[in-house]
Amino acid sequence: MSCQSCNTKNRKPNGCKSNGICSSGGCNKLEVYDWLANIDLPQGQKPYDIYEVRFKNSRKNFFRNSSNLTLQVGDVIVVEAQSGYDVGVISVMGELAKIQVSRKVKGLKPIEARKIIRIADDKDVDLWVKARSKEKDLMYQSRVLALNLKLKMKISDVEFQGDLSKATFYYTAEGRIDFRQLIKDMAGQFRIRIEMKQIGARQESSRLGGIGSCGRELCCSTWLSDFRSVSTSAARYQQLSLNPQKLAGQCGKLKCCLNYELDMYLEGLKEFPRTDVKLKTKKGDAYHIKTDVFKKTMWYSYAGESNLYSIAPERAKEIIRLNKEGKKPQDLASFKTHSEPTEKELGYSNVVGEESVKRFESKFKKTKKREKKGNKPRKNEN
Predict the structure, then answer these.
(1) Of 192-196, 201-205, 346-350, 378-382, which range is least confident?
(2) Helices 180-190 & 122-148, crossing angle to 10 degrees?
(3) Class of residue 25 by CB neighbours under 10 A (exposed 0-12, middle 13-18, buried 19+)
(4) What are phi and psi of 45, to 5 degrees?
């Protein structure tokens, strides 16, 4: 099976031209690379019988291969559900699945895991594709029902169970929603069992996916699995402007990538003095303007002046120590250790020896003269 975004024909994708073996990782959300696939198990050790199965978008679960079926990554299988059965794709198997189980579901006993029933046949796959094709229309109809009831909620995704007996509606809302009447209306109109699941804004972006301001796919839909809290202090430590339009992602919350380099900035800022401390000199009090953590430079300026003085953090600490002793240096110019970068004039070196733009004009004129002479009509010799 190929991804739903590619144009398919005879169950082979036409968009990526990979004939169903695309390895870019962009067709599936939260794709996992099995880096333990080529490692053989020790003698006498049985392979791990619990598999990670991927369903629509980023939903995954673990199932046990109790029937000892011969399975590989990418196989479409039929698994047990709460009522009925579901269809999914194997994403991780073997020792890496054991690591995923210990990381995501701690204390999972093999007996408690649901079972893999069989490998999906053509009938199961056709029913699964039919369920996927009906989800979009079902989502639009459910949104109309929610608007008629004036419910402050947004239904962002719908997922059918593999046997078309149940549909799960994922929605976002700011507060608690009483959707009992909505479930009755949807069950009467769609004639299926309804399940409502409330998710956050970050989980919604993870399920739907998209392109970030960096030009790449969203981290939450490709590799990020845990959503840590992000605060505006992360932007302050990194000297970023507190512009909500630039700091917010597609989910409306602060970007998760603000935490990626935060530890490095916090480690580097330990060598710097506090920025709210004024440097007192005989010329006047100097105020902190900006800081470059990587260049280890601090810029100060006097009130009413536009000149900036770049000072190393050690020199700034020295001035603060002198101020505590009641001493004031003459000015910041004597402590200035980093000179401002000056733009160098780039010259042009004539390697070929011909730098004139008009060097080809003489050749063009000669060719034109020859063409004119050749096109003149000859005189009649008679």
Answers:
(1) 378-382
(2) 130
(3) middle
(4) -95, 130
Q: What six digits make up the tokens of 190?
A: 């769609």
Provide the strand spans (E) within the chain.
8-9, 12-13, 50-54, 60-64, 76-80, 85-92, 114-119, 154-160, 166-172, 193-198, 279-280, 285-292, 297-302, 309-311
CB environment 81-106: b (16+ within 10 A), e (fewer)? beeebbbbbbbbbbbbbbebbeeeee
Nearest of 81, 90, 161, 79 to residue 116 by alpha carbon: 79
Torsion angle of C-alpha atoms 57, 63, 67, 68, degrees rounded to 10 = 80
Query: pLDDT at position 16, please?
Result: 52
DSSP string for 17-55: -STT---SS-SSTT----TTTTPPPPTTPPPP-EEEEE-
CA distance 91 to 79: 14
SS3 170: strand
Q: How many Å apart are CA 11 and CA 223, to the nearest integer?
A: 27
Give pLDDT, residue 171: 94
pLDDT at 42: 85
Average pLDDT, integer, range 120-149: 92
Structure tokens at 179: 């959707």
Cα separation, 362 vs 364, whole angstroms: 5
Q: How far apart are CA 347 and CA 114, in angstroms?
A: 73
Whether pLDDT at 101 is above 60: yes
- Over its C-alpha atoms, the chain yields an Rg (Å, rounded) of 34
Whole-number pLDDT of residue 182: 93
One-letter amino acid of 35: W
Residue pair 239/211 in contact by the 8 Å Cβ criterion: no
3-state secondary structure of 196: strand
Q: Is the pTM of this model over 0.85?
A: no
Encode pLDDT of 179-218 as tens digits. 899 999 999 999 999 999 999 888 899 888 889 988 998 9
